[in-house]
């Protein structure tokens, strides 16, 4: 099992939301690294005790029987994703794919919509991102996009030139 503290937004920002996902999937751990800010700095935010922490429980739902060999992509035929907006909890069972990344759809929209209603703000499929060309000119893109169109992937993109420079430095 993995315990994955995550921040939806910059760590320390008053607008960011905090969650902790318990999962049995290494896929979830690796992919949440791309879709949220994770790790020890999030625990420091939790320790400040001024933000609600949304608990998220996920299992691929494929326990191994004694002597059974593991498979590369375990999941259960039955899948459940349950949101508890009143208590701000998310439970997921059986999924080994994108729906297992509970910080994205489940928290960022469904639970956040309830938090937003209670606190007087709005949660929606929106994107505001600055894109910088190699000459340093920054262009901002703002839009409302549908689900599964690549907003998060676009926002988390590291340009190839920058990635190459980082690999030379590290």
User: How many strands appear in the DSSP assignment?
Assistant: 8
Shape: globular
**Main sheet: which strands, in order across?**
3-1-2-4-6-5
Mean pLDDT: 82
Radius of gyration: 18 Å
Along the chain, the helix and strand elements come as EEHEHEEEHEEHH
Give the SSE layout:
Elements: E1 2-8, E2 17-23, H1 26-35, E3 37-38, H2 40-48, E4 53-59, E5 80-84, E6 89-93, H3 103-119, E7 126-132, E8 138-144, H4 151-155, H5 160-169
Parallel strand pairs: 2-4, 4-6
Antiparallel strand pairs: 1-2, 1-3, 5-6, 7-8
What does this structure look like?
The longest helix is centred in the middle third of the chain and has 17 residues, at 103-119. The protein contains five helices and eight strands; from the N terminus they run ββαβαβββαββαα. The protein has 170 residues and is of the alpha/beta class. 30% of the residues lie in helices and 28% in strands. Residues 163-170 have low confidence and may be disordered. A hairpin with a 5-residue loop joins strand 7 (126-132) and strand 8. The chain has helices spanning 26-35, 40-48, 103-119, 151-155, 160-169; strands at residues 2-8, 17-23, 37-38, 53-59, 80-84, 89-93, 126-132, 138-144. Strands 3-1-2-4-6-5 form a six-stranded mixed sheet, with helices on both faces. Strands 7-8 form a two-stranded antiparallel ribbon.
